[in-house]
Each structure stands twice: as structure tokens, then as C-alpha cells.
Design goal:
By secondary structure, the protein is an alpha+beta fold. It contains four helices and four strands. It folds into two domains: about 70 residues, no CATH class; about 35 residues, no CATH class. Keywords: Membrane, Transmembrane, Transmembrane helix.
């Protein structure tokens, strides 16, 4: 008699697993961002006129559910990768040029190397042929 709820829970889980078979079903970065937008819009919808907050929160939640239940796994994954790259570009833009590198080749052996941007003129030693040269980065 005490295991009735456990059996119902297992039956519910089996039905859910059958429903989600072959679907995207991931809480990736886009879905997390859309859920944050949904929560923010629910909080601030009282101060946004003409039910725009309610409409935006509904759209964000509908997009999350659509992406979560989509059977097109690879396009959803590609969307997420593009979003992650876009976020990285936005972060780099606001961070400035600190985290970026300047790429160049050794004049002797043509080995590819990098150095952090914004250091001015620096003396570089090639790890491959041990040639030394000065480069402005």
C-alpha cells in the first residue's frame, strides 16, 4: 500500500521518457538566458505598459518549451553554439583588448606564434629554431 505513489511516479517517468525520446531536451545557454528573460519580465511586468511584459515573458517561455521539445537536435545545437560565440564576442567587446592575442610567424622557420596585444615592442624567441626578433604587438 505504501508503494502506490512510487509505482505512479515510475509510470509517469516512463511516459515522460517516451514523450521526450528523440527530442532536444537540454537546458543549454540559450534556454537559460530565455528563462532569465522570462523571470525578469514576470517581475517587471507591472511597470511596463500595455501588457508588453506579459507578452515578452510568454514569448520567452514558449521559445524555451519549443527548443526543449524540438526533434531537430542539430539545428538547436548549432543555435546554441552561435549564441555562445556571440556572447563571447560581446564579452570581449566590453572587456577590451586584454584577452586577445596577436598572431605572427617566425621569420626563420615560419612557426606560428602568438603574443598578448598591447605590450608594445617585445623581443621574441622562437621555441622551434631559437631565432630572436623584435615585434610590435
Amino acid at each position: 500500500m505504501g508503494n502506490g505513489w512510487m509505482q505512479r511516479l515510475m509510470k509517469f517517468y516512463q511516459k515522460y521518457a517516451y514523450l521526450m525520446r528523440g527530442r532536444y531536451g537540454r537546458l543549454d545557454q540559450i534556454n537559460k538566458a530565455l528563462l532569465i528573460v522570462w523571470a525578469v519580465m514576470l517581475i517587471f511586468d507591472r511597470w511596463i505598459p500595455f501588457y508588453i511584459g506579459n507578452i515578452l515573458s510568454f514569448i520567452a517561455l514558449a521559445l524555451v518549451l519549443y527548443r526543449f521539445c524540438s526533434k531537430k537536435i542539430y539545428p538547436r545545437s548549432n543555435e546554441n553554439q552561435a549564441f555562445v560565440q556571440w556572447i563571447a564576442r560581446v564579452k570581449d567587446f566590453f572587456k577590451g583588448k586584454k584577452g586577445t592575442y596577436s598572431y605572427f610567424k617566425c621569420p626563420e622557420c615560419k612557426q606560428k606564434m602568438r603574443a598578448p596585444k598591447g605590450r608594445g615592442k617585445i623581443k621574441i624567441t622562437c621555441k622551434n629554431c631559437h631565432a630572436q626578433f623584435i615585434k610590435k604587438v
